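Tip: read the tokens left to right.
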């Protein structure tokens, strides 16, 4: 039994013991300091992958460490269980999305349990169950009552194959992310959340998130995209002067370039464009064409610039004689700014392309200095400079010219300075089945009416079929037919479901507090929140994190929660990667299908040569995944956990390798052998004591900084030192300490070894060992410094200085320098750790 550590027995034994003892149950009422450690909850796609293992191992180390530090730790787990893959599975495999999802959850839960994560399973939740999404519906109604939910006709990305609206990020190169079909733009009535009301707060709030990676804050800042500018009205030529009429309102961040305007462009969805199209079939055809392709900015940016000249003209605001043609253009977004702009080809890249294509004038109005005023424009010059060819602005800096134009527009009453955000309101309607039903009833007489609270949850019916594309809720024979809660007349349920990002916008609150009758209890939730450390993939840097921040602020605004930011610390871990392999015909091969022969790779089945390709993120499409489960079977949970932490810094990618996992398994056995060997002896070993204290400090500091690979390195060092030491009381203590320090990473090994050595209780319940700062200081020696054989100074120095270091130290002494009188020494004699004699 004690020869080798046997994870096959130990893993299950300790997992059962922790469960029996409810070791990881979080007590909201505890008086201890609270620590909320959270990893992004998984989508139950089928099986746990290595990315999950790495992510959850990191959180687990922190959670176990905080617990040993005496904190009350909340470390929960649940399932982001709604979403499209379940529906796709339903269509492909003819299983119900609910059955498919719940089965996956059962599989993945069992897989997670085998890794021995210190999770409070009593708080497990799945977003696809009514006892979760029913509360979400209540929160939706709260936001609706507060005016933070609205309905709007909006242009959406329509996937004609999946028959669904896609979010911008689901459109890749103009095609649906799943179907690959060319995306179209369509107008649909949709539900929106007013995230733009919070744009400024969400932006300003980033400043306080000093425990977030800078790159994530910057990505959010750019996504929110604040710009200061001028909004003003153009009058169409030929309309009578005077009056307050505003024909085309534009938004610009460069009012200083107003004299360089050579056209006005409006979005294909602009009311004026629609008005023009009503009487002009060519214009109508152009609008249809311009709408093909997605609505993402990136796409609009890269698509070929297309325009249609309406024949209308507007008057330049500073020169009533000057006319600008009005074009409909595909690069103008309909829901940014006012959906209209004035084009300045000399100083804007899009306008430059557009002007070249349609032969519109390109006029310089900004130059590096006045001398450059007449230099031809070879490419768009977007940098600020000095205004030229700009009437009263000439000679002003771009900054001053902007202010001057805004001032004149405001005094003249035809425009105003505004702050504009790129952030758009959050469209949460999805024409999909497997999601939270939006709790609204449509009545012809009363319009959309919220479902009365006593009728919540609106349960998603599970008696539906997937034999046709589209949303099965639309075809359900009875579910949609209800009476209007307002007038009692016949009405219909809303069949759109909520974007699954809504589900993940508040799950961390429900983890903290989950009463039956309410989404959460405010006081209890505030015991835990904000999440102290959140860990997940950088792919969620923008949307999920922004939506969760918004949701938290929205709850704060309506008085449900006294908290502005949900996540105090954020850590984005790197990916798990693996080499890729391809057969001669270009098809991908999995690591299990290939074998190494010398420097070559061979296809096991056919014996034919294989090309080893790049190291890439593990993904099913490239077949370079390694399933964690057989690895756990073979090496045990601790070796897998150890490998996930050891090989690279946590924010970097980790390359999976056979050698790596084997090395980890060997280390587990090494610690085991040390722990089982005779350690006791009399007397102390001062050097080992110092190493033990240093390891305690180093491992703690590394875990605090989420530098797990450094913690691992410090543990290797201590292990080496113990191995080299002779039996002593110090050695025995060092081994006990080693087990405690290794416990967050390799908890099963630590428990088993602790028990074998007769340790009291379980190691999870041991306090984190304390270190004595005095023991961290290197051993000091006293150096005598002589000049020409006479003692002139004594210096304290660390033991083991080299001759050069000792000499340098001695020569730096003021007393010594005084006796050298500015001259260079002729000779220096060093007796290590004792004496430096300088011959002047
Ligand atoms: C004139 C101008 C001159 C502009 C110049 C830029 C450079 P940001 O900074 O990203 O907010 N714009 C305004 N509304 C638009 C819309 N609906 N779709 C596409 N583009 C739009 O961008 C603001 C600038 O983007 C505005 O300033 C406007 O072009 C354009 F040398 O006005 B500018
Ligand atoms: Zn009604």
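Filled-in amino acids:
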């Amino acid at each position: 039994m004690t020869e080798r550590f046997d994870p096959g027995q130990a893993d299950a034994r300790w997992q059962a013991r922790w469960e029996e003892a409810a070791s990881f149950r979080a007590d909201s009422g505890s008086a201890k300091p609270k620590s909320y450690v959270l990893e992004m909850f998984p989508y139950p796609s089928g099986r746990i992958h290595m990315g999950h293992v790495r992510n959850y191992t990191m959180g687990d180390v922190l959670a176990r460490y905080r617990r040993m530090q005496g904190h009350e730790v909340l470390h929960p787990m649940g399932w982001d269980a709604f979403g499209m893959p379940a529906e796709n599975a339903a269509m492909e495999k003819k299983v119900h999305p609910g059955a498919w999802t719940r089965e996956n959850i059962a599989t993945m839960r069992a897989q997670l349990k085998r890794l021995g994560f210190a999770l409070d399973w009593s708080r497990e939740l799945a977003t696809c169950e009514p006892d979760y999404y029913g509360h979400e519906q209540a929160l939706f109604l709260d936001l609706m009552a507060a005016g933070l939910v609205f309905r709007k006709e909006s242009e959406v990305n329509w996937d004609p194959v999946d028959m669904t609206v896609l979010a911008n990020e689901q459109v890749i190169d103009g095609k649906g992310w799943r179907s690959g079909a060319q995306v179209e733009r369509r107008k649909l009535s949709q539900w929106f959340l007013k995230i733009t009301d919070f744009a400024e707060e969400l932006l300003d709030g980033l400043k306080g998130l000093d425990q977030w990676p800078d790159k994530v804050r910057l990505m959010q800042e750019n996504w929110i995209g604040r710009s200061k500018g001028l909004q003003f009205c153009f009058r169409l030529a030929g309309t009578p002067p005077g009056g307050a009429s505003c024909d085309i309102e534009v938004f610009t961040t460069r009012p200083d370039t107003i004299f360089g305007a050579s056209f006005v462009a409006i979005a294909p969805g602009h009311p004026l464009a629609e008005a023009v199209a009503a009487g002009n079939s060519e214009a109508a055809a152009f609008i249809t064409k311009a709408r093909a392709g997605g609505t993402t900015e990136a796409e609009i940016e890269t698509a070929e610039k297309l325009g249609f000249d309406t024949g209308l003209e507007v008057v330049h605001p500073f020169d009533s004689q000057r006319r600008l043609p009005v074009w409909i253009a595909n690069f103008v977004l309909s829901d940014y700014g006012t959906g209209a702009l004035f084009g300045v080809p000399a100083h804007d890249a899009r306008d430059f392309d557009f002007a070249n294509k349609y032969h519109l004038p390109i006029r310089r109005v900004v130059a590096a200095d006045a001398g450059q005023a007449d230099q031809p424009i070879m490419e768009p010059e977007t940098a600020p400079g000095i205004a030229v060819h700009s009437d009263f602005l000439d000679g002003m800096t771009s900054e001053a010219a902007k202010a001057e134009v805004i001032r004149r527009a405001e005094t003249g009453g035809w425009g105003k300075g505004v702050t504009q955000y790129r952030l758009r309101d959050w469209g949460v309607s999805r024409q999909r089945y497997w999601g939270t039903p939006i709790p609204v009833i449509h009545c012809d007489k009363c319009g959309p009416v919220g479902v009365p609270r006593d009728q919540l949850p609106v349960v998603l019916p599970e008696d539906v079929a997937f034999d046709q594309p589209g949303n099965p809720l639309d075809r359900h024979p009875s579910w949609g037919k209800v009476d209007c809660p307002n007038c009692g007349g016949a009405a219909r349920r809303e069949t759109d479901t909520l974007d699954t990002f809504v589900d993940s916008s508040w799950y961390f609150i429900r983890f903290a507090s989950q009463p039956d009758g309410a989404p959460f209890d405010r006081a209890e939730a505030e015991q835990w929140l904000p999440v102290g450390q959140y860990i997940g993939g950088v792919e969620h840097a923008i949307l999920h994190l922004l939506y969760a921040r918004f949701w938290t602020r929205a709850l704060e605004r309506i008085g449900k929660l006294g908290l502005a930011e949900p996540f105090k610390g954020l850590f984005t871990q790197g990916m798990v990667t693996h080499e890729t392999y391809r057969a001669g015909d270009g098809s991908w091969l999995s690591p299990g299908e290939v074998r190494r022969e010398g420097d070559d790779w061979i296809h096991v089945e056919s014996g034919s040569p294989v090309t080893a390709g790049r190291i890439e993120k593990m993904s099913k499409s490239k077949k370079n995944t390694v399933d964690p489960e057989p690895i756990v079977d073979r090496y045990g949970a601790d070796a897998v956990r150890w490998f996930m932490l050891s090989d690279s810094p946590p924010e970097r990618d980790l390359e999976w390798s056979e050698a790596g996992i084997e090395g980890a398994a060997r280390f587990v056995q090494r610690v085991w052998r040390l722990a089982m060997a005779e350690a006791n002896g009399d007397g102390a070993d001062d050097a080992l004591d110092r190493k033990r204290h240093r390891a305690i400090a180093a491992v703690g500091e590394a875990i605090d900084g989420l530098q797990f690979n450094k913690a691992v390195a410090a543990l290797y060092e201590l292990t080496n030192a113990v191995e080299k030491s002779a039996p002593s009381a110090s050695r025995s203590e060092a081994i006990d300490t080693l087990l405690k320090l290794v416990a967050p990473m390799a908890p099963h090994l630590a428990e088993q070894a602790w028990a074998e050595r007769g340790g009291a209780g379980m190691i999870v319940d041991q306090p984190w060992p304390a270190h004595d700062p005095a023991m961290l200081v290197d051993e000091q020696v006293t150096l005598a410094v002589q000049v020409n054989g006479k003692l002139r100074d004594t210096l304290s120095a660390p033991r083991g200085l080299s001759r050069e270091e000792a000499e340098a130290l001695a020569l730096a002494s003021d007393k010594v320098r005084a006796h050298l009188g500015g001259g260079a020494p002729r000779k220096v004699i060093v007796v290590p750790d004792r004496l430096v004699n300088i011959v002047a």
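Residues 50-68 form the longest helix (19 residues). The longest strand covers residues 149-159.
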